[in-house]
Fold this sequence. Notes:
Blueprint: H1 19-40, H2 46-52, H3 76-80, E1 107-112, E2 118-121, H4 122-127, E3 132-139, E4 144-154, H5 155-162, E5 170-175, E6 194-198, H6 199-202, E7 208-213, E8 216-217, E9 227-229, E10 242-248, H7 255-259, E11 283-286, E12 291-294, H8 302-305
Parallel strand pairs: 1-10, 4-11
Antiparallel strand pairs: 1-2, 3-4, 4-7, 5-6, 5-10, 7-8, 7-9, 11-12
Amino acid sequence: MNIIRRKGWEIRESQATPESVFLDRRALMRGAAFAGAGSLLPGLSSLAMAQADPTAAMYPARRNELYKLDRDLTPEATASHYNNFYEFGLSKNVFSAAESLKTRPWMVKIDGLVEKARDVGIDDLLKAMPLEERLYRHRCVEAWSMTVPWTGFPLKALVDFAKPLSSAKFIRFETFLDPKMAPGQRSFFPWPYVEALTMAEAVNDMSLMVTGAYGKPLGKTFGAPLRLHTPWKYGFKHIKSLTKISFVEKRPETFWETAGPGEYGFWANVNPQVPHPRWSQATEEVLGTGNRRPTLLFNGYGEFVADLYKGLEKEKLYI
């Protein structure tokens, strides 16, 4: 007898949206995107919206069906209004404050151990990258979770674009620094926000550079116009509003390692068996549902990433 063993994140084929319905939905969204957003922002025409974000016509992107979910998507209003974005405040309610983020013009510096350092505009970068939509779970170290349809391109594509030297062992990511625009950057934290991955993590198929969500360009509270998403890691690794990407030989010290070395480490892989010093990681609250569910090792993506950490048992892998 042929027994089918489904992977932890897979749904039954019968539960998937039929391709014809999916394509019709995407076409409808593409045609209605400007009109819908215009109704949310009275007086803003489609032309004005296109001028505000020149990449708007690139959304929605075709969905990569390899990445499925075992739970419902979090409603956009819920996901976008409950976020950590410390550049704009310490509370989760930073949606309005984040609207002061100016995303055009926006330059991304690529430097360090690369064949040629360069500064590239975000719009030019997107034109050079293969955009797609992926349904990913997101698990915060604070023990809440959501599921989001992110749009972006594989981080591996950016690595290929940058052409790093063989001596590069890590990628260091840095966000903007503008205390006048972002009042949270006037606080005691070690700004700018810095994160990093090993090169092996960066070229893993699941690592995604995010430029959009919910079928349109990335909202400011999500970290527009460019953020990182590594769904097997706690959310603080998913640095927002990137302005600098450096290829380096030595492992960088990251933002939360500096701010809270007793609570946060470099790896930040989701593990229900290793508690945060101040709370359990065994369960998580699913945003918008009021329900808690068991936390999955590597957030349920272990089959894709567990091999990255063999031989690192003595490291603090999970905080």
